[in-house]
User: Fold this.
Amino acid sequence: MDNTSHPICVAALYHFTPFGDLPALRKELLALCQAQDLRGTLLLAREGINGTIAGTDTAIKAVIAHLRTLAGCSGLEVKYSRAAQLPFQRMKVRLKQEIVTMGQPDIDPLQGTGHYLTPREWNDLIADPETVVIDTRNDYEVAIGTFQRAIDPGTHSFREFPDWFRAHRGDLLGSGKPRKVAMFCTGGIRCEKSTAFLKTEGIDEVYHLKGGILKYLEEMPAEQSLWQGECYVFDARVSVGHGLVPGPYTSCRDCGRPLTPGEACQPCAAN
Assistant:
């Protein structure tokens, strides 16, 4: 992508690691990001860090380098993309109970997750008709793009996923020989918890796309891709396509749902 027309670097990141003094860490990271004139949101919890930040290449490089010096964060996962202008209005660092809210306090990705797959390994797995492919994102995200053959749970929040899986387990997996389950999400973090959850449910053959859809769209040539549509992102770009090029969608001012240009938001209009 042309860095001249898209001068802003956008870094989506997460990492699971035990943190101690969260208020002090929040103060430290907010001061650092503001000093570098970054915009975006970082979420901090006892279980780790998650968020997206945007700014100049130099500023992003400095902050990512600092984050990787934090205890347990040397393997911090980061996906980079570009934007024509800052996709966030201000910088926020928030303290949370979970860095991605599943509402299952006993689930710890550090104790074991599914098997990671590269984009090419992912293509091979989901091309197998015996593989159960599950989109772990919310309904409004799935509506504008997903992988071929992917099952849409129709959830409104990630908290609903465990109950959905338990209610549909028999339909998904049947009673015959064990089936492989492949799950994916935007940047990979929801699958850290959803695959860990499935393992506690006794599912061993569970896989997830390393780096999520964003890494797939960055690396996989469009002509070899099994992705259909656009990928929703939680910033002013609204969506990205192959090569992480910003897409045509806008968002509803009231609920944030993605809309095609000129489209009215039907759920909001009905209320």
DSSP finds eight helices and 15 strands in the chain. Helices lie at 22-35, 57-67, 119-126, 139-142, 161-173, 189-200, 212-219, 266-270. The chain has a mean pLDDT of 94.
